[in-house]
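Exercise (ungraded).
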Amino acid sequence: MREVDRRSKHSRRIFLKGAATAVPVVAVATSLSVSIEDAWADEAGTLSPATMKTLLKVARDIYPHDVLGDSYYITAIKPWDDKAAKDASVKALISDGIARLDQNARDRHKAPYAEVPWEADRVVLLKEIEQSDFFQKVRGDLVVSLYNQKEVWPRFGYEGSSAEHGGYINRGFADIDWLPKA
Amino acid sequence: MAKFDLNDNSVVVIVGSGAGGGTLGNELAQKGVKVVILEAGPRIENQDFINDEWDSFTQLAWTDARTTSGTWRVAKDFSGLPAWIVKAVGGSTIHWAGASLRFDEHEFRIKSTYGNIPGANLLDWPVTLAEMEPWYAKAENKMGVTRTNGIPGLPGNNNFRVLEAGAKKLGYKTVHTGNMAINSQPRDGRGSCQQIGFCFQGCKSGAKWSTLYTEIPKGESTGNLEVRPGSMVVKIEHDASGKVTGVVYADDTGAMQSQKARIVAVAGNSIESPRLLLNSASSMFPDGLGNSSGQVGRNYMRHMTGSVYAVFEKSVHMYRGTTMAGIIRDEAPNNPKRGFVGGYEMETLSLGLPFMAAFLNPGSWGRPFTAAIDGYPRMAGMWLVGEDMPQETNRITLDPTVKDKFGQPVASVHYDDHPNDLAMRAHAYKQGAAVYDAVGATVTYPTPPYPSTHNLGSNRMSEKPRDGVVNKFGQSHDVKNLFVSDGSQFTSGAACNPTLTIVALAIRQADYIAGAMQKKEI
């Protein structure tokens, strides 16, 4: 069978470049010894960096795929900052939602959500707010913004558009080789 | 290409250009009848279709506002999207999978066969299989259906091979790559299937039959057919004698136009067609045009549907190749011993990763969900499609508050699953899982219904005017120059996919309309 190459073709450097004003951010991050991993959150203009980082953790906990690095989740959640800039109600939805989650986390674990160490404990916190508008909107957006990234598809063995490759007629539409003989 | 005047009252106006409207338009044009098709959506040619699920959805889907209610899960998961159908020239023949099956004999007479089912509004069709057979044959020939007319079946893809192996192990007998209106060899000026996948996103190669690039250009080349894209019909008008005289529609600039007509045929799919009749109420027809029976909008059917996806140890890559070229027909007959009347088909189905995430179990999240998605390349899938019970209360009505951009009330879709539907779905899930378990599935997932693709029955045929909206030719019982030409005229839904029957009825209706015009009956 023709298998799909699942290796990531998506380096962190390329991601940062694509995501924003890459060179200055990387330069500043390096010069200030801030980790590159955190630089993306500081680019947010409307939502606070802490809110963005917590949103990343929430996104990972909603759809945890251990094979995917943070970059895919960051790509999925970054548009919330733009949406918040354009619409105060969105800003309140995300900021208040994260604040509530942090408060619940502090009450239970004496730490904000992103610093609760175990996924199982964080999932309990998410379960409590599952019916909230905040959770529903974030999850409903994420199911598209995460799984509709073309860079994500090969990681799940999905090849995307095929017509320009002549379809699968010569590319393994019937190459299954492990079935018992009928 | 023909261009008819707005005041030309000799034309037949057809609302919609899909399986019903597109076919009727071409058939009439071939007989020398002048036709104007008003299509709400744009004209998008097949080379412009997109092999990308969400981008294609944005390009093609009917996303105008609708509201929902009822116990069906679609109302909860997709409250604003009861149906997944197309708004473009070609209608849902762009999106359909190509499965082209004839009704079984008993499926035209379910009242006689099933008897009295509490809560169901059963009725026999005013037409029989024997009457329909020659029209089915014409439809199969027109559409180039595999395993008819000497056309070979399509080759089976990986997803089919898994289905077939499991079915045979389980002892099922009728298992093949389907009766598909997809060319397995070049035919009718169109090439053969390239196993692209993305059948639901519009067939870029044109191997799959769609009115967009078959019926419509053929009709246009006669000089008798004009298609006006971007034309949303908002009202059908009538005179003092109760005959329809034309339609009012918003053109592609949003301006209101009035097209005169000798005959109006409604083919806007089973949600928009009753909506248009209801929105055409007048002092003479206070409950909606052609609605003396009160049945307009009622008995809405959408098939018992569901899917089963299964994950195996090794790769399947189910998305490669023709989406629905695979069927098990052993559960299709009526066998009440299973605990329900009617039957269902098991057909191969695949979704790409984006739609799998959206539809596998809407609303779910966390590790159980992501574990399933992690299995995507090792997944096989089938769709379960069976007869649902017509119920008077399953119904298209006008929403009391929500209006479209032209000020017209939008359609509200109410659907409750009947106990027979639920029993059938439970059986189908169990059998679907058994097929995959037989060849080593490590886990199977029963997947809830998607927004409806088979919308049927909301202007049903009946022998007696009090029982339905149209007669055996799709002609209104109340208004003799008003016709219904889509799946909304179905008296019952049968187990199988409806398009072949819609096309066969449209060919037959064209014959009837042309004859009646010649005899000056209408």
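Further reading is listed at the end of the chapter. For now, observe: Residues 26 and 218 of chain B are 7 Å apart (CA to CA). The mean pLDDT of chain B is 98.
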